[in-house]
Amino acid sequence: MTSVSTMGQALNQIRLISDQNLLLSQLTNQLATGKKTQKFSGLGTDVLTSERSRSGLNTLDVYTNNIKIADRRIKTMINAIEEFKAHAENFSNALILFSQESVHQQGDEIIYDDPLTPGINENLKIGMNSAEPDVDFSSLQQFAGDIFEFMVDLLNTKDGDRYLLGGADTLNKPIVDNGTLDAAVSTLLAHWKDETLAPAVNLTNSELISALESRDNSVDANAVTDTIIGYNATLSSGNVGKVFVRADEVSEVEYTVLANNQPFRDIMVALSYFKNDTLAPIADVYAEPYTAGDPTLADGAPGATLEEMKNNFFEVFNAMSGMLNQAIEDMNTTVQKLESARARLDSLRKKHAENKIALESTVADIENVDINEVAINVQMLQIRLDASYRLSALTGELSLVNFIN
Q1: Which residue in 32, 281, 299 sits closest to 141, CA to CA?
Q2: CB count in 10 Å sphere of residue 317
Q3: Which residue, among 151, 150, 163, has the nearest Cα to 263 in the 3D structure?
Q4: Are 156 and 164 in contact (CB under 8 A)?
Q5: What region does 230 belong to: left with phi over 0, alpha with psi -120 to 50, or beta?
Q6: Which pLDDT band holds residue 384 (cuts at 50, 70, 90)?
Q7: Residue 241, CB-side half-sphere exposure with 13 Å CA sphere
Q8: Mean pLDDT, range 251-270, rounded to an integer
């Protein structure tokens, strides 16, 4: 006698179909997302490795973004410095073309013949009858003035709301043209030109050059300090912090360039000298007709004759030209420093990219599924489910009566 438990068969069939539906749901999810599971707990013993790899990826993203931002800022700084240098070089070329054979003044020469020596015709050239500079001198000064404004803007280069040449002080303009530099240079030139001043006040050529070259008033009382130039208080104090970028867990790359670095400072002072209104005239100016002892209408460079005045003027002129040219050359070191920092950051960026690929591969191996394999499993499971449903339907048609019959 055969015994059939219809209830048992039904329950078993229901459980089988339920398990298959659950598995189908999981496989369908995997097929849609490409992931083994939607929860870390579903990764089993691999969960810790996955979490560590993902944490590593997040950290690499932070460092890579830091490098990206720093690289953009360094590139902006290099562009500003290169433009600053180009303007300085253009002006340097103009200085080379500026003739040193002339006093570059309009009008006529003042000739002095000593009345006490009527038998001797001295014909001393002691000045000019006009203080108006010639076209070459006016053009040179205009050029210096125009460049100066560009230079101030370049030293105040920004990335977003951050000033890039102010060190860690990113919120304040590194330099402001507030007129103090022009006023200081004008005073120095006046004290150099006015030979009636007391020796303690009147400046010689070497004293004027020293004052313009020096930035420390403990070394030279007449020094053109950073504060006079217009640099902000943080830069002028010398206490500004450096700029670093955190490029990985152990590396900080420094890329500080300050607007008051010596080359920038020297070029700004040199331009201020060349554009200063007090620089002209080169020669003393007298009214005509000239009589011995007449006061000057405008002071030129120190000296008793045109030749002496011209020589003294161009001694200082050439010193400032030399300071400008040396500063231009020294700027190469500044650019090289930034390029070196940029190269190091690029090397770290490439290393991070390689590490990221490795970590992404680890995560993929742990979390991802083989889509083709899942698709095959889904098809097979659907076939099994279809068979289970058919079997369930057939079982439902069975009855004790049908079985007996």
Answers
A1: 281
A2: 19
A3: 151
A4: no
A5: left
A6: low
A7: 6
A8: 98
The per-residue DSSP string of 64-99 comes to HHHHHHHHHHHHHHHHHHHHHHHHHHHHHHHHHHS-
Label residue 271 exposed, middle or buried (CB < 10 Å: 0-12, 13-18, 19+): buried
Nearest to 254 by CA among 19, 45, 74: 74
Mean pLDDT of the chain: 86
Q: Report which of 67, 89, 77 is spatially closest to residue 261, judged by C-alpha positions.
A: 77
In total, the chain counts a number of residues equal to 405
pLDDT in tens, 286-336: 999 998 889 999 999 999 999 999 999 999 999 999 999 999 999 999 999
For 331, the token pair is 């700027």
Q: Which two structure tokens, joined as six digits, stand for 131?
A: 């203080």
CA-nearest of 13, 17, 39, 57 to 354 is 57
Give the Cα separation of 173 and 116 in Å (integer).
Answer: 62
Determine contact, residues 97/330, Cβ cutoff 8 Å.
no
Tell me how far apart the alpha carbons of residues 102 and 282 are, in angstroms, rounded to a whole number.
9
Contact 318, 209 (CB under 8 A): no
Neighbours of 222 (CB within 10 A): 16
- Which tokens go with 50? 């996955």
Determine contact, residues 211/222, Cβ cutoff 8 Å.
yes
Whether residue 45 is predicted with pLDDT greater than 80 in this model: the reply is no
CB of 286 closer than 8 Å to CB of 129? yes
Q: Let me know: does 7 contact 401? Beta carbons within 8 Å.
A: no
Using alpha carbons, list the distances in angstroms from residue 337 to 304, 323, 332, 334, 345.
49, 22, 9, 5, 13
399 Cβ contact list (under 8 Å, min separation 6) = 6
The pLDDT of residue 14 is above 70: no
- Using alpha carbons, select from 105, 187, 193, 91 the residue that is nearest to residue 142: 91
Residues 307 and 290: their CA atoms lie apart, in Å, by 18
Residue keyed to tokens 């005073």: 187
Sequence-ordered alpha helix ranges (H) in 98-172: 135-155
> Taking a C-beta distance cutoff of 8 angstroms, is the pair 65, 74 a contact?
no
Residue 179 tokens, joined: 């007129």
Peptide bond into 289 cis (omega under 30): yes
285 SS3 class:
strand
